[in-house]
Design a protein that fits this description.
Chain B: It is a multi-pass membrane protein. The complex is a heterodimer. Chain A is mostly helical. Helix content of chain A is 74%, strand content 2%. Chain A has one domain: Orthogonal Bundle (ABC transporter involved in vitamin B12 uptake, BtuC), CATH 1.10.3470. In chain A, helix 3 runs antiparallel to helix 12. In chain A, 49% of the residues are buried. Chain B has helices at residues 2-5, 8-27, 32-54, 63-76, 107-129, 134-154, 186-189, 197-218, 221-231, 233-238, 243-269, 279-292, 297-329, 332-335, 343-357, 366-373; strands at 85-88, 102-105. Classes of the chains: A mainly alpha, B mainly alpha. Chains A and B meet through helix 6, helix 11 and helix 13 of A and helix 6, helix 12 and helix 15 of B.
Chain lengths: 361, 389
């Protein structure tokens, strides 16, 4: 009896929300439904291909989600689109390849790890590259905040955005000077062999690696935000900077830690991107950064779970567009998603800032 | 006499600009090509200044209008659409004496068409974005600015139809000219690459018209409406200003000049391809506006000249100096370095330093200066307004 009553009120609430929705929402829902149906048709026709593409989408989505978290963390705290974040990701991939090469500033620390030295050395190399890149990108993030954003804390928002764009170009050119304009190859440390016995669906060790690195990072971040003192301080600062500082929270330190977290995730993401795709290039941060920003907006900027959901969605949209529309249209599709979301639902799918602020809208 | 004094400096500068080809020929500096390129960017910067400086809407995709203007000229003044043959007042002729392949319309008509087409596109892009907050609006314009060149890049096979010829782009665009002039003025009949004077005077006239329109706009009803919407949209709306049409006018007029500049660029360079319209160009133009002084016409012109001057003169000069040092020290890295490749490093530094030290630019607009120096966050954004409407 009670369950029936709940179901009835639920359907009523659904009808109510449909009745209250504007035309733009209805059109958006219809378009999304059509796209999903078309994809399902493809899935039924060629399930193996669809599943393989889905795996690639999820893996790319994990890489994008980690970058998107950096955008969303910073936006949640100081309402800045940290344009340099994508380029920080690029620097992360360059730090990763430098660690693997074993040579820095002309000094040989150890022999380059190229994948020929056995499994243990490979695992050690990947972990070492990840840790160094995470540390470096975290510090770069904090440094940029100190130098470029902190003096502008009270300036018009767009002045800070212009500074962020400037920092993005500076980082991009540091990458250009460091590694040159050509694509930088990564060694094949993680096997591209299929894990699954059947040949139809492709799930490679690389895909497993990305998931295996991403999930602990997400769990760790979630624990940090929800259960530590510093995470609580972050949520408080995101809600109200002045009130937080009156409660004795060190706002500047909290903002620095936010940039540190964003940088750490971007560093991990950069190394994974390089190992997964086998290459990195100095301007990869621009496109990947925009994809990640799209993901953050799609999920609802400032909302941490939104960034993760958005990241996976953008990854899947990208891989589906690769397969069914054409690789060269993928970026146009994702930028179109960005524009449509910003224009028709700037709050994103899950609503903005609710996660960091510790409540709904 | 005193009331004419304020015209003295502009008059001297215009006279210098008019005499530049003669000075250049006398000194043998061969600077006309550079001067024309700089003038194109002065026009672009003035166009962006309407959007960013006057109306306070940060546009990160301004290159889209530049590209649209160039492609309009590319489509309608070349052999690209070789299935049809149509000529209208064009300088293009074919060797056989028959009507040439493709659409060939006079540059002067296309110039207007390109401007109007860009302006309409500016309004189409602007319309859905106007209810967004400043930084979201910037990202949407960035998205459009990325989509349009990528569309041109992929547009060589739209269901089998070749609209843009892909990464190769459109080649051999017709020269502008006045075919009806007597033969004694043959360099004006059809502009050639050998004599750059007609090109120079054309772009100079275009720049002067742009400056005139900008100066007149600044203190017009519309210009003051832009200032009020920029400073406080709600108060402006309460005073009877329609923020939507006001902002749309800014987009349309900015795009108009972007389209003009693109059309001239297409005819001047003759070969256009999508890589020439990257995000970097948007930022370069923005950098000019920020460096010179948002909202100040003279500042923006100075910014454009300064940054292109760095591009064309300072960096090659510095490169030779660094090469000499590298040779002296014996460092191969220094003697082979190409500083011009890293110009965007310098532009990035310029953006950051200007925002940190002098956000109002070299020659500030006094009103913008007050807004940018305003430390009270309670009064909303001086650029782009406060909350979403």
């Amino acid at each position: 009896m009670t369950t029936g009553g709940v179901a009835k009120s639920r359907s009523e609430a659904l009808l109510e929300s449909v009745r209250n929705s504007g035309w733009d929402t209805r059109i958006a829902v219809v378009i999304a439904a059509v796209v999903v149906v078309l994809l399902l048709v493809q899935a039924v026709q060629e399930p193996a291909q669809f599943a393989s593409q889905l795996v690639i989408g999820i893996t790319n989505g994990a890489i994008i989600a980690l970058i998107a978290l950096g955008y969303t963390l910073v936006y949640g705290i100081i309402e800045l689109i940290n344009f340099a974040h994508g380029d920080n990701f690029m620097i992360g991939s360059f730090v990763g390849i430098t660690v693997l090469s074993g040579t820095f500033l002309g000094l040989d620390f150890f022999a380059p790890i190229t994948g020929s030295g056995g499994v243990l050395i490979n695992i050690f190399g990947v972990l070492f590259a990840l840790v160094v890149a995470m540390a470096a990108c975290g510090l770069i993030g904090v440094g940029i905040e100190r130098v470029a954003y902190k003096p502008l804390r009270n300036s018009p928002r767009l002045a800070v955005l212009i500074t962020a764009i400037g920092m993005s170009f500076i980082l991009q050119n540091i990458g250009l000077i460091w590694k040159g304009p050509a694509q930088v190859p990564f060694p094949e440390l993680i096997s591209s062999a299929n894990i699954l016995p059947s040949e139809a669906v492709i799930f490679r060790w690389k895909d497993l690696f990305v998931i295996a690195v991403t999930v602990p990072l997400l769990v760790g971040l979630s624990y940090f935000i929800s259960s530590t003192r510093q995470g609580k301080a972050m949520r408080a600062v995101a809600q109200d900077k002045e009130a937080a500082s009156m409660m004795g929270i060190n706002v500047n330190r909290t903002i620095s830690i936010t940039f540190l977290l964003g940088g750490i995730l971007a560093g991990a993401s950069g190394v994974m991107y390089g190992l997964f795709n086998g290459i990195s290039v100095f301007n990869v941060g621009f496109t990947q950064g925009l994809f990640a920003f799209t993901a953050a907006v799609l999920g609802g900027i400032g909302n941490l779970s939104g960034a993760v959901v958005g990241g996976f969605l953008i990854g899947i949209i990208g891989s589906m567009a690769d397969q069914y529309i054409g690789v060269r249209w993928t970026s146009i599709v994702i930028f179109a998603v960005l524009i449509l979301v910003l224009v028709f639902r700037p709050r994103g799918l899950l609503g903005d800032r609710s996660a960091v602020q510790g409540g709904g809208e | 006499m005193a009331r004419y004094r304020r015209f003295l400096l502009p008059a001297v500068l215009i006279l210098l600009a008019v005499l530049l080809p003669f000075i250049d020929a006398a000194l043998g500096t061969d600077a006309l090509f550079t001067a024309i390129t700089i003038a194109i960017f002065v026009m672009l910067a003035l166009g962006l200044n309407i959007v960013v400086g006057f109306a306070g809407l940060l546009d990160l995709g301004f290159v889209a209008f530049y590209a649209l203007g160039a492609y309009v000229v590319g489509w309608f003044a070349s052999t690209h659409f070789n299935g049809v043959s149509f000529s209208l007042g064009s300088t293009a002729t074919s060797l056989s004496g028959e009507a040439p392949d493709g659409i060939h319309i006079s540059f002067w008509i296309l110039l207007l068409l390109a401007g109007v087409f860009s302006a309409v596109c500016g309004m189409i892009i602007g319309f859905p974005t106007l209810r967004l907050r400043g930084d979201y609006l910037a990202i949407v314009t960035l998205g459009f600015g990325e989509i349009i060149p990528r569309f041109f890049q992929n547009g060589d096979n739209l269901n089998g139809f070749n609209l843009t010829n892909g990464t190769i782009g459109i080649k051999a665009i017709d020269s502008p000219g006045f075919p009806f002039l007597p033969d004694s003025l043959d360099t004006w009949q059809r502009f050639s690459t050998l004599d750059l004077n007609p090109w120079y005077y054309t772009i100079l006239a275009m720049v002067l018209v742009t400056i005139y329109v900008n100066v007149r706009l600044q203190n017009s009803r519309l210009g003051r409406a832009w200032i009020s919407v920029r400073e406080d949209e709600t108060a402006a709306a309460a005073m009877g200003i329609n923020p939507v049409t006001t902002k749309l006018w800014a987009y349309a007029l900015g795009a108009l000049f972007g389209g003009f500049a693109g059309a001239f660029y297409g005819a001047f360079i003759k070969n256009i391809f999508p890589d020439a319209f990257s995000f970097n160009i948007s930022i370069l133009i923005l950098c000019m506006v920020v460096l010179g002084g948002m909202g100040n016409i003279y500042g923006v012109i100075l910014g454009a000249i300064a940054l292109q001057g760095i591009n064309f003169y300072l960096l090659p000069q510095l490169s030779t100096v660094v090469h000499a040092i590298g040779d002296a020290v014996g460092s191969a890295a220094l003697s082979d370095v190409d500083l011009a490749r890293y110009n965007f490093f310098i532009f990035g530094v310029v953006l950051v330093l200007m925002m940190l030290l002098r956000p109002e630019g070299i020659i500030p607009n006094r009103q913008r200066q007050e807004e940018l120096r305003d430390d009270d966050p309670g009064t909303g954004d001086a650029m782009g307004g406060g909350a979403r409407a």
